[in-house]
Amino acid sequence: MEFYDILRERHSVRRFTDKRVESKKVHAIVDATICAPSAGNMQSYKIYIVKSQDAKENLVPAASYQEFIGKTPLILVFCADQKRAETKYEGRGFELYSMQDATIACTYAQLAATNEGLSSVWVGGFDPLEVSRILRLGEYEVPVAMLAIGYPAEEPRVTGRRPVSEMVKEI
Length: 171
What we know:
Elements: H1 3-9, H2 23-34, E1 45-50, H3 53-62, E2 74-81, H4 82-115, E3 119-123, H5 128-135, E4 141-150, H6 164-167
Antiparallel strand pairs: 1-2, 2-4, 3-4
Helix pairs in contact: 2-4, 3-5
């Protein structure tokens, strides 16, 4: 796909088929995240690939009972690696840059999933402490976003966008 086509094709989907996401596609998505820019090229994030049905079902209550999470073929959990960013940028790296690195990586993964013919939805509504417990994250790994990925079982609803004039100001 062409880049601008990928941007237009990407829409949030919360119903997926049972079809497993092929390892080749998972690797392509992960490889795309590695291309994401990061503060000082520190790549201050970790990605947890969740395929286990038990883990996915355990994440449902941690994510405000969003039931589709337990039925999603693949979930990538993007975590800020606060200690890694702190080594170069001190407090600002710990608090901000690691979070930005994780979200940029998740964005790249979402676009890569679209390029692979998959659908996804960004999940930000969850209890980070509970997700950390379920996935046994490291002490300074903070879950920032979950990306549910699979083959769509529904036609995505295309949503409108605010006018550029409301969002962009030239100075």
